[in-house]
UniProtKB/TrEMBL annotation:
Similarity remark: Belongs to the aconitase/IPM isomerase family. LeuC type 1 subfamily.
Species: Bordetella genomosp. 9
Name assigned to this protein: 3-isopropylmalate dehydratase large subunit
Subunit structure: Heterodimer of LeuC and LeuD.
Keyword 4Fe-4S: yes
GO biological process: L-leucine biosynthetic process
Binding site for [4Fe-4S] cluster: C351, C411, C414
Note accompanying the cofactor annotation: Binds 1 [4Fe-4S] cluster per subunit.
NCBIfam families, per the entry: leuC, PRK05478.1, PRK12466.1
Length: 475
């Protein structure tokens, strides 16, 4: 048999039928839903009187529209009528079909891509689908995860399969060691910047190399989560000791025999020597600095020491127009320095950076310091479990003492589908994954960065190089 990539192995082990040279019928191990991409799918099932084929392999959460006001979980209420209707419909559908739901007032509620891994639902070798593009997150644990559309959600509910178009394969090797002050978030923004917003379009991307192996499981989730911002259809890491330790600690529902099967399967979940990729890239981790986006696409990013580019230096008229549009929307000018740019808001959270590791890093930086006057800084944990752990470890108290708002879990200000949104013209240092126009609120201006960099911006009142925080700023 020819040498195979990890991606090809995952597809092969879930292939129900080969439909043609480009498509297979793919079996789905776990399907995750939220309140805004599932209603039409359930309506389609109802119209044809079809049941959900395998309710036990479905899971649902309310996460996008839920307010994150700091009230007890039992008191959480979605006041917006349209959003409340979405949540009620999801609950009704889940009850009718026997699907597990983390509802509005459930203590386990949180962001789908945080809840599923922390609950031990994601195992190496699985296929995991969700009506959300950041389902690529699960590749961090050696699972094939990707987002699907509403019609595909309906198909999965009815059949537990998907008509799947095969992806091309790409390998991104990151050699060396990340310097102090740089994190998995800086690494992935650097990757997206280098590849471009469409650079991985149509590819399943496998990450490897010394710098990747050194990342924690949570850091790997950050990496795979944002790989989609380069157009990747999937992002993968071969499971290793880090993966298995993370999963074993959370998948406590598995019997000893079941865990032995996971270990056995994991041994083969790696790219064979000699397997060929359609594209390959090699990057040097040692050259990566803390990154900040300056524009309205995640690839429009630079090291924090950089300056806004001059559109006249672009290769063609279309690129020049796009750069000018982004610069104008962000209220910047060519040559403006990123370091020192004032911010109005700081948001720390999301499925990219709302895990306990992220909050620990922030708390370590802000201990004994205060959020700058005039800056509103929010921390939104990725789940109820993360929130409780942060409170038990004293992290929440450190954040509150430093002047941060300590909120309930949810997608929150990652996207303007709930109460947490930017006002027109407000500039935000954000740990989220997208900086599109209006993403965090109509007219809002978003700069993506790591939790450490966002915390530094909160303390300084401006975008600042976390590596120099506490040192005298040079004018």
């Amino acid at each position: 048999m020819a040498a195979m990539t990890l991606y090809q192995k995952l597809v092969r082990t879930h292939e129900v039928a080969r439909l043609d040279d480009q498509h297979v019928l793919l079996y789905v191990d776990l399907h995750i839903m939220n309140e805004y991409t599932s209603p039409q799918a359930f309506a389609g099932l109802d119209e044809r009187a079809l049941p959900v084929r395998r309710p036990g392999q479905q899971m649902a959460v309310v996460d996008h529209v839920i307010p994150t006001h700091p009230v007890p979980p039992a008191a959480r209420v979605i006041a917006d009528p349209a959003s409340a209707l979405q949540a009620r419909n999801l609950k009704r559908n889940c009850v009718a079909h026997g699907i597990a739901l983390f509802d509005t007032t459930d203590p386990g509620q949180g962001i789908e891509h945080v809840v599923a891994p922390e609950r031990g639902m994601i195992l190496p070798g699985m296929t995991v689908l969700c009506g959300d593009s950041h389902t690529t997150t699960y590749g961090a644990l050696g699972a094939l995860g990707f987002g699907i559309g509403t019609s595909e959600v309906e198909h999965v509910l009815a059949t537990q399969t998907l008509v799947y178009r095969l992806a091309r394969t790409m390998r991104v090797r990151v050699d060396g060691v990340l310097p102090p002050g740089t994190t998995a978030k800086d690494l992935v923004i650097h990757v997206v910047h280098r590849l471009g917003a469409q650079g991985a379009r149509g590819y399943a991307v496998e990450f490897c190399g010394e710098a990747i192996a050194a990342l924690s499981a949570e850091g790997r989730m950050t990496l795979c989560n944002m790989a989609v911002e380069a157009g990747a259809r999937a992002a993968l890491l071969a499971p290793d000791a880090v993966t298995l330790a993370y999963v074993r600690d959370r998948a406590r529902h598995l019997s000893a025999q079941e865990w032995d099967a996971v270990l056995e399967d994991s041994r083969g979940l790696r790219t064979d020597p000699g397997a060929r990729f359609d594209a390959e890239h090699v990057l040097d981790a040692g050259a990566i600095a803390p990154y900040v986006t300056w524009g309205t696409s995640p690839d429009q990013a630079l090291p924090v020491t950089g300056s806004v580019p001059d559109p006249d230096g672009a290769d063609d008229a279309l690129a020049r127009m796009a750069l000018r549009k982004a610069i104008d929307y962000m209220g910047l000018a060519p040559g403006d320095a990123l370091d020192g740019l004032p911010v109005d808001r700081v948001f720390i959270g999301s499925c990219t950076n709302g895990r306990i590791e992220d909050l620990r890093a922030v708390a370590g930086l802000v201990r004994g310091r205060r959020v700058a006057h005039g800056v509103r800084a929010m921390v939104v944990p990725g789940s109820g479990a993360v929130r409780r752990q942060a409170e038990a470890e004293g992290i929440a108290r450190q954040l509150i003492d430093a002047g941060f708002e300590w909120r309930q879990p949810g997608c929150s200000m990652c996207l303007a589908m709930n109460d947490d949104a930017l006002a027109p013209g407000e500039r935000c240092a954000s740990t989220t994954n997208r900086n599109f126009e209006g993403r965090q609120g109509r007219g809002g201006r978003t700069h993506l960065m790591s939790p450490l960099m966002a915390a530094a911006a909160a303390l300084a009142g401006c975008i600042t190089d976390v590596r120099t925080l506490g040192q005298e700023r040079h004018e």
